[in-house]
Amino acid sequence: MALSSSSSSLLRRLxxxxxxxxxxxxxxxxAFCSSSSSxxxxxxxxxxSIFGDDTEVTNVPPLTTPKLFVSGLSRLTTDEKLxxxxxxxxxxxxxxxxxxxxxxxxxxxxxxxxxxxxxxxxARQGMxxxxxxxxxxxxxxxxxxxQKPAPQPDTASHTGFTTxxxxxxxx
DNA sequence: GTTGAGCGTT
Length: 171
Hints:
Strand content: 15-25%
Largest sheet: 5 strands, antiparallel
Shape: globular
Distance between the termini: 103 Å
Helix content: 10-25%
Number of strands: 5
């Protein structure tokens, strides 16, 4: 048996971690945790209550940002690996694996930035829950790191005090 | 030498 320890940890992640926050990744866990029809399922939204006129809910759309948050990366995965994996999906403007400055090792997640949402979506649906460096990675829209570069209402720092003091003229 | 939750330095 050569593959045992890696697969156990892998399943542990898929079944164990449940942040219940992501949308795209949650679909994967939903596949594992598909609750069978056991008992009266009272909590079922009426099918006619969906937004859908003809819009199918198969795809969680759409990204609101060309920046992707990639998690589940192997600790051996680097920026080039990340970019190389997301390159064929679109023009990667920036791909970076977050590494701890204290130890200089990967934190296990990174960020991939595309030129447009289309490429980001393609990469997301193309690389989400895929294997990279032997680990299953999860692709989700990244959260804005900085929202506003400090408006700074006061432009000119004019203290306004011109110290005009005629000093000493005592003869 | 690594086993795992999460959103980053410039």
